[in-house]
Amino acid sequence: MCRKTGSVICRNQRGLYGLLPAPAVAQAMLQEVVATYPEGSATIKAWVALTFSATSRSGGKRRDAEEMSRDLAARLPGLGQRLHSTGAGAARPMTAQRLCEAVRVAYEPRAARLIDEAYSDGAVPELSWSDVGPAAAEAQWDSYRHDNAVSVSWSMSGAPRGEVQSSVLEKLLSPHPDIARKRVALLYQPMDSAAAARLVETDKRNADFRATSSPRPSARIQREQRAAHLTATEEARGAGLVNFGMIVTATALNDEQLPDVEAAIDNLAATARIQLRPVYGSQDSAFAAALPLGLVLPKHLKVPAEIRAAL
User: Fold this and answer.
1) Dihedral sign (CA 196, 197, 202, 203)
2) Same domain for 186 and 301?
3) Residue 166 domain-assigned?
4) Residue 156 backbone class (left: φ over 0; alpha: ψ -120 to 50; beta: rest)
5) Could you give the CA distance from residue 125 to residue 113 in angstroms, rounded to a whole number?
6) Are residues 120 and 187 in the same domain?
7) pLDDT surpassing 70 at residue 27
8) Is the Cβ–Cβ distance between 62 and 94 less than 8 Å?
9) Which of the two ends of the chain, N or C, has the fewest CB atoms closer than 10 A to its terminal CB?
10) Is the domain of 245 the same as that of 281?
11) Could you tell me if 19 and 2 are in contact, meaning their C-beta atoms sit under 8 angstroms apart?
12) What is the percentage of the chain residues whose pLDDT exceeds 70?
């Protein structure tokens, strides 16, 4: 059967070939395959964004851009080697062009095909920071519409309890057929040694109180007590402490796909043993926080971190 002409090639008794019209069912099947058969495959990309402060200590002198560039240039080789030793493969710094492309595709998913076609033709689509933002956006209470897509972001409200295996995030990070684009961002913020010491001692006292206040403490309470004691011991030996969180953003190409996207994220969060809540009222901020821009969220909150820590 000829795919383009929709005909059958036959051979008669004399050895001559001819073209006969293909059945209507075969033609309809071929047309449906051409129109609906999926093209391409899922792509997984990973970014690591590191944010450095221009002041070495609180109240110190602020370094200018040239001093920061020299400092970061000396740090980059070591940071790349450490990332490579984690098993993540070869790590290389992103250029401003590649970063602009990543942000542009996040706000306008259909631009990914145009960028890929440009690279396949040997051309580089020149982008600047003024081109990567959305042409129009609308932040709703539980969703965020940007250009020709709509996204929903969730934040982690509870970390996995119990023993955490290395594959706990495998399904959450893997591509899903009901989600056009998905982004999972892990946020880390190192704590200073003084605040870390106070925090681990407070957690240790609270865990001891919960264990001794009950005549028959549960296995979970006992495990939390052991974990608090182990954390306090490691911190006393010089280990650092970090605050961590997670933002999950799922993008749909139209409003009809949103219910399937939300249901898929709910199921994936359960498999990862993570409690996720929609970021109500801050969907646009959560969308930008999950991009590889190195935003430090506590620096952009209305309530300073010092006041929140004292509450």
Assistant:
1) positive
2) yes
3) yes
4) beta
5) 12
6) no
7) yes
8) no
9) C
10) yes
11) yes
12) 87
In which residue are the tokens 């402060």 written? 53
Closest by CA to 250, choosing from 132, 141, 154, is: 154
Six token digits for residue 134: 């959305």
> In terms of domains, do 182 and 261 share one?
yes
The average pLDDT across 107-132 equals: 87
The span from the CA of 52 to the CA of 65, in Å, is: 12
**H helix and E strand count, the chain:** 11, 8
Q: 165 burial class (0-12, 13-18, 19+ CB within 10 angstroms)?
A: exposed
**Residue 80 domain-assigned (yes or no):** no
Which domain, by its residues, includes 227? 193-240
Q: How many residues does the chain have?
A: 311
Nearest Cα residue to 37 out of 49, 45, 29? 29
Name the DSSP class of 64: -
Please give the average per-residue pLDDT across 16-42, as a whole number.
71
Number of folded domains that form the chain? 4
Residues 108 and 219 in one domain: no
pLDDT in tens, 154-190: 999 887 776 778 888 889 999 898 899 999 999 988 8
- Please report whether residue 306 resides in a domain: yes
Q: Do 211 and 306 fall into the same domain?
A: no
